[in-house]
Design brief:
The chain has 612 residues and is α/β, with parallel strands linked by helices. It has 19 helices and 28 strands.
Length: 612
Amino acid sequence: MTTNTPYRPLAMRGPSVRVQSRPDGSLLLESGYSYEDVERSIVHVLARQARAIPDRVFLAQRAPDGSWRQHTYADVHQQARAFAQGLLSRALPEGRSVMILSGSSIEFAVVMLGAMMARVPVAPISVPFSLWSADHGKLRHAFAVCRPAIVYTDDADRFAKALQALDLTDVEVVTATGTPTAPRHSRLSSWLDTQPTSAVDDSIERIHHDTVAKWMFTSGSTAQPRCVAQTQGMMCHQLASWAALEMPASDRPAPVILDWMPWSHVGGGNIGFNHNLLRGATVYLDEGRPMPGLFEKTIANIKSVSPTEFSSVPVAFRMLVDALRTDAELCQAFFRRLETMAYGGAALPTPVANELQALAVRTVGHRIPFTTIYGATETQCITQVHWTTDETGLVGLPLPGVQLKLVPTDDRHALRVKGPTVTPGHDAEPTGRQGFDEEGFYELGDAVRFLDPARPEAGLVFAGRLAEDFKLNTGTRVAASALRQQVLTTAAPLLSDCVICGLGEEAVGVMAWLNPNAITALLGPAPADTPPHAREDVLNRLRESLEGHNRAFPGSSHAIRRLLLVAEPPSFDTHELTDKGSINQRVVRENRAGLVRELFASEPGARVLVLA
């Protein structure tokens, strides 16, 4: 339906890659593009933009009355300098940090940039560590590791339980609103009334590429999050690598971004934030989330903003498609000036991508290119799909400046990376530098394949998390995360997520969660008093889809022989669910061992769907 419709032109350079084969069977990949100019620091970029476009809105967020509260580039620069002066006046001890307990906000940006100006590492903490957790174990771990002298929270009342879980004896709590029960506390407004002195300029002058700007924590899909040093050089080389791929165009309007991605993670807080700053974008902060009951806020914000770019996780695009189908006003607002879309964290199911493009063609007459990125907390963004393609599931090609090493493993390649965007180590922890091989390549723990081995410029395809692989009792290896994506694509849109099971079993089984909204849109409301997992039409659709998958992939490492629908959602506190919404397959299997036994029982119960 849309395959012959042209894409909106993408203002980026086409694919280019150099591949070197090594005697040990590994491959080295580098971009065919390069760069020379590298920014000195993120705060130097801010200062330049404050001079060049002082009156352009940089950040906007909803005020309590629903209007957009706006800060220009000059506003953010001035307030960051004031916060920096407050830090410098306090003469914090060496090795201490500023911890942020807040969702993304204008004040978050001011505190973060001000801390960078004062050369005090900032530690943005994932909001779920504070608000989703019952025991605050991950928060207390992060607090102990980064040793903050200042804790900033946008709302002391909202984060009251989190603050009470911490030993604040020698810590000053700075709040935008609310009153904390802490020995020492102050209002952010008093900091922002501070008059900056030459001490701020002297501090900025001493920033260099090895200056640690942030301590960022991994999602904590294992027992505890790991603290990763983020230097100014890492972030600035990231900006240079992207600039090398973008086609210059003086007449292109400034980007307008709707951003929900948490700034406590590299994707939102480094990759997105810094890139938007470099380009002089106007960023509207989206208080919505890709979750039932919250995505409605994202829909309202799309209608208000009409972004030129939209980036999110695959589940958000699925929810967006559900809304776009029946809302013509939303279609116009979303596609009217949209130039690119991007997804990360997992592959976008092909049916979702296809329907998005069909809606775009119906609304504006052309398709919208996807510019997928891939990276990690330790590496920033290291690959990108920076060309127009119909393929989904690609992670792209190496960005300029980084070198990938692909190490053969089974029929895939384990992915490793070296370059100036890679962390010098986990410097806030006693264990220091971890996860690097003997040549200094960081081991990402992921596997990739070439889309077309004869044409490496066609890009790399994500082929699974190596740590999630397991073997059947026949010795056959199952690439669980890649198979999970196949199942979700095959069963789209009926399933919201699934876990691949079968360790030590004869065949593969799946525990899965249904997508009630999509089921209602596709099949209509359920009969009275019939839960979604008991609907015969749903079970029949799932059986038909998965048995079709089995006919196409009959091998024991791909065929799905049993399915169990699960009602209880994955848990954050038990490490089944990360704060970015991804599922830890291994932990779910371990925590729900009883369900796994039910799935593979020799005489399956009524809840288990046995597939041919």
